[in-house]
Design goal:
The chain has 400 residues and is an alpha+beta fold. The chain contains six helices and 19 strands. The chain folds into two domains: 136 residues, no CATH class; 148 residues, no CATH class. 23% of the residues lie in helices and 26% in strands. The strands form four sheets. It has a nine-stranded antiparallel sheet with strand order 4-3-2-1-6-7-8-9-5. The protein has a six-stranded antiparallel sheet with strand order 13-12-11-16-17-18. Strand 1 and strand 2 form a beta hairpin.
Length: 400
C-alpha cells in the first residue's frame, strides 16, 4: 500500500501537471477577459458627430484608401476629386462607431495581432483598416480588424495602445473610394422620352421615337430596305438609360475629358427637356459625360397644350355636375377648405420655369464629371442600327 507521503507526492505532481497544461493552453489563445469591459471604443464621439471634419481610412503599407472631407458643409471623397459622398452611409457607419462597446480584452502581443487583423497598418501584409477621425476635441484613431467568428462583432485596437479588444457590432468600413460616392444621378422615366438619337464617330446614326406620349413602343427610323426590327419592343430599352440612373465610379472631367469623337446620345422629352450623353473608352473602362438643356419652343408649346387640356377637363366636369346648388342646399354643410380642393393648375409660365429649374439641378450634378455607369446602361448608349435588327437572310441558294 502507498504510504501517506507517496499519496501527497502524487497529488502535488497532478496539480502541477494540470497547472502546466492550463498555462500552455492559455499561451496559445488570445488573452480574453469576458468580465473586463472598458466602456466605449470612442468615448464622447456620439456627442460630437456634428464636429467631424475628416474621416481617413488607411490600408496596408499605410496607403490612404479613402479620405472623406467636409468642406463648406458638404462631404466629398478626396480620391475622386471631392465628388459628393454618400452622407447617409457615412452617418450610419459613424453611429456604429460611436455606439461600439469594448466587450472583451484580447491579445496585447504584437506577434499575435495578425490573428485578429489588428497589426500595425504600416506592415505590407496588414489585414485591417486604420481609422482617423478629426474634428472632435479628442481625435479618434483605431484599427478595425477581422469580424468575430459569429460575424456580429469586430476585433479592434486603438492605434496608440497595445491592448486589442472585441468590440460590439460590425465596424469594418468599405475600403474602396467608389463605395463612398453619392451614386444617384437622375431619374427620368422612359414614358417621358419622345425621341432618342445616337450618333457614332463614324457618322452612323440611330434614331427612334414615339408619335405621342402614351404610345407603348418606340419606332426605329430609316430601317434599311429588306430588314426589320428583331421585335416590336427592342428599341424601348434605349429610352430607359436616364431612368434610375446611378454611377459606379467617377473622375473629374479635367482628369478624364470627353474626346471630340465620343459617341453622342441625345434624349428629348415631350415637355422639352434635352439630355446629351457623350460616351467613350479609356483602356477598358467606358466613361459618360452628361449635359442638360431646354428646348423652350417645345417646352412652351407643351405647357400651353397641357393647360388647355386641363381647363377643358375641368369645364367638362363642372357641366356634368348638373344644376347649380342653392344656398339653401348648403346651409347645414361645412364650408370647403383649400385642402379639400385640388391644387391650382400650373400656368404655362410656371411649367416652363419648373423645367428650367430641373435643367439647373441636373447640370449641377453633371457638370465637371466623367461617370462610369453600370454595363447595361452603357450597352444602351452605344447601340447601332444593326443591334436592333433581325439577322440578314442568307442570300445563297439552299443546297440539297
Amino acid at each position: 500500500m502507498m504510504n501517506q507521503k507517496t499519496l501527497i507526492g502524487l497529488a502535488v505532481v497532478a496539480v502541477v501537471a494540470v497547472g502546466a497544461a492550463l498555462a500552455l493552453n492559455h499561451s496559445r489563445q488570445p488573452a480574453s477577459n469576458t468580465g473586463a469591459q472598458a466602456g466605449l471604443l470612442a468615448p464622447g464621439l456620439a456627442e460630437e458627430l456634428d464636429k467631424i471634419k475628416t474621416v481617413e481610412l488607411l490600408t496596408a503599407n499605410n496607403a490612404a484608401a479613402v479620405t472623406l472631407e467636409q468642406k463648406d458643409g458638404r462631404w466629398g471623397v478626396a480620391q475622386r476629386g471631392g465628388y459628393p459622398a454618400d452622407v447617409g452611409k457615412l452617418r450610419a457607419w459613424l453611429l456604429k462607431v460611436a455606439d461600439a462597446r469594448l466587450l472583451e480584452q484580447k491579445t496585447s502581443d504584437p506577434a499575435r495581432y495578425a490573428d485578429l487583423g489588428v497589426s500595425d497598418i504600416k506592415e505590407p501584409e496588414a489585414k485591417g483598416i486604420e481609422v482617423h477621425i478629426t474634428g472632435p476635441a479628442k481625435p479618434v484613431d483605431f484599427i478595425v480588424g477581422l469580424p468575430s467568428a459569429h460575424g456580429g462583432d469586430t476585433f479592434v485596437r486603438r492605434s496608440a495602445e497595445a491592448q486589442s479588444w472585441l468590440a460590439k457590432g460590425s465596424l469594418l468600413p468599405d475600403k474602396q473610394a467608389s463605395d463612398w460616392l453619392h451614386k444617384d444621378l437622375a431619374n427620368i422615366s422612359s414614358d417621358r422620352i419622345a425621341s432618342v438619337t445616337i450618333t457614332h464617330a463614324d457618322g452612323q446614326r440611330l434614331h427612334l421615337g414615339k408619335a405621342k406620349a402614351g404610345d407603348s413602343q418606340f419606332t426605329i427610323s430609316d430601317i434599311p430596305k429588306g430588314r426589320e426590327a428583331s421585335s416590336e419592343f427592342v428599341a424601348n430599352g434605349l429610352a430607359s438609360v436616364l431612368s434610375e440612373l446611378r454611377l459606379d465610379d467617377v473622375a473629374s472631367s479635367s482628369e478624364i475629358p470627353a474626346p471630340a469623337d465620343a459617341t453622342l446620345a441625345r434624349y428629348q422629352t415631350f415637355d422639352g427637356l434635352v439630355i446629351e450623353a457623350r460616351q467613350w473608352k479609356v483602356a477598358d473602362k467606358a466613361y459618360v459625360a452628361f449635359s442638360a438643356s431646354l428646348d423652350e419652343t417645345v417646352a412652351t408649346a407643351h405647357a400651353k397644350a397641357a393647360a388647355e387640356k386641363e381647363s377643358a377637363e375641368v369645364g367638362t366636369t363642372d357641366a356634368e355636375k348638373g344644376p347649380e346648388v342653392t344656398s339653401a342646399d348648403t346651409e347645414d354643410k361645412p364650408a370647403s377648405t383649400e385642402s379639400d380642393s385640388n391644387p391650382p393648375a400650373k400656368t404655362p409660365e410656371q411649367a416652363v420655369a419648373d423645367l428650367k429649374a430641373e435643367v439647373d439641378a441636373l447640370n449641377a450634378t453633371f457638370a465637371g464629371w466623367s461617370f462610369v455607369l453600370p454595363a447595361y446602361k452603357i450597352g444602351n448608349i452605344d447601340k447601332r442600327m444593326e443591334d436592333l435588327l433581325k439577322p440578314k437572310a442568307d442570300s445563297k441558294p439552299a443546297t440539297k
